Amino acid sequence: MIKFTIYGNPVPKGRPKFTVRGGYAMAYTPKKTKENEDYIRCAALPYKPYIKPFTGPVSLTAIFYRSIPKSFPKKKAEMAKNGILRPTTTPDLDNYLKQVEDALSGIFYENDKQIVDSSESKYYSDRPRIEIEIQEVIENV
Predict the structure, then answer these.
(1) Domains, in order of start, for the chain
(2) pLDDT over 80 (residue 97)
(3) CA 119 to chain centre
(4) For every residue of 61-103, which 3-state class applies, written as one string?
(5) Gap between the Cα atoms of 123 and 1, Å rounded
(6) pLDDT per residue over 57-79, tens digit each?
């Protein structure tokens, strides 16, 4: 099992953008998404498997801690800090998760299609971060 934390406010995966060049439509990844994936990769590299990425099924757990909005009154901010009040606004949890899955692909597993089990949650915190746990799933053959 590999566990690590990436500090900073979680960023959701941006939708691909489209442009036309030379009469052909092209899709590209938004700059903010690309920069955040690079940041996640760099922060995760010290924890990668020793020899090579996992080749079999993988389980991924990710807990996303967003900053507490400055607009929250003190009582509401305290409830958020204690985990009583949780984020129910956009961005969606699956957009956060997709960003992490794609960023860790090729480092911890060959492709994110290997993820057969996942668990994700989002909370508020005065210390924004992503806590990640990756584990190879042992198959009973």
Answers:
(1) 2-136 (3.30.1330.70)
(2) yes
(3) 11
(4) EEEEEEECCCCCCHHHHHHHHCCCCCCCCCCCHHHHHHHHHHH
(5) 23
(6) 999 999 999 999 999 999 999 99
Say if CB 130 and CB 5 are below 8 A apart: yes
DSSP strand pairing (24-28 vs 58-67): unpaired
Q: What is the mean pLDDT of the chain?
A: 92
Taking the C-alpha atoms of residue 34 and residue 31, their distance in angstroms, rounded to an integer, is 5
Q: How confident is the model at residue 51 (pLDDT cuts 50, 70, 90)?
A: confident
Residue 16, SS3 per DSSP: coil
Mean pLDDT for 9-21 is 86
Question: Residue 118 is encoded by which pair of tokens?
Answer: 């996942």
Check residue 141 and give its pLDDT.
Answer: 64
What is d(CA 96, CA 79) in angstroms, rounded to the nearest whole number? 23
